[in-house]
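Sharing a chain and its predicted structure for anyone who wants a worked example. Both blocks are below, sequence first, tokens second.
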Amino acid sequence: MSGSSETLQNLALARGTLDRAGVRRKDPELLPSLLKDPSTQVLELAAGLAEVVELDHDLALLLRPPTEQDASRLAVFLGQDGDGTAYVGVVRDDLDPLGASQWRTLRSVGVLLSDRDAGLFATMLGLANWHAVHTHCPRCGSRTDPDQSGWIRRCPQDESEHYPRTDPAVIMAVTDDGGRLLLARSPQWPEGRLSVLAGFVEPGESLEAAVAREVLEEVGVVVDQVRYLGNQPWPFPSSLMVGFTSHAADPTLHLDMDEIVEALWVTRDELREMAAAGRFGFSPSVSIARRIIENWYGGPIDQRIE
């Protein structure tokens, strides 16, 4: 794997600016103290949604001072800014549908938020997703408790510590000798939605080896010239997407129909025509997949429907 002068900059979910201040997490009084401090900025999450407000034609997370209810909720210390202001995320169990008009998903607003807010939302969503599915000890089955300001869970029976999980995944542009891009569709996607290939890294495997294996397994193409493009967290629920470009030694396709039901090589003109006709559903702007495709294309792609 080699670096590239085309490394993607300013990926939507890789723009966090806060100091995570990890050394403060072990203080058992940190969260209780911050949740009594009116200067603390609280990000509230409900069903994976966060409330947003419009400020000067831009979107921002609605951050508020702590309330009494926050002391009984799952809370996470998210870090502090250069002025020393602390940020805490809390998870509420309920959300009134009638009052949820300004609550949004990270997918829908991540690209529109500031660097600070995008980082806050991505971090809190990833941690909330992990806490939701790691409630019991994998060793003895006992219920675990949040600890270290929400960054680990501890088993009260065997005192084992359990840390947030992040699953690395590779995502890659595959091009042929003619400069065409390979696009594909998985069985779970509707017709017309195409993207670049992606897959999880297996134990004992390097990133570039994962790129070559996934492309070979899914479409039967051998690739070389694997080059790094960039990475960003993808907390849906717990991935780190690592982007690459690669070159197909032979463009002949042999699809694994369990994984890929449609794949095709496209030129830039063909992709532009597909987009103009509304026949191509793109990945959302917040995704690294979209940036990889536009990096190959040479700029933003106009489309009718995202």
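Comments welcome. The CA atoms of residues 283 and 290 lie 5 Å apart.
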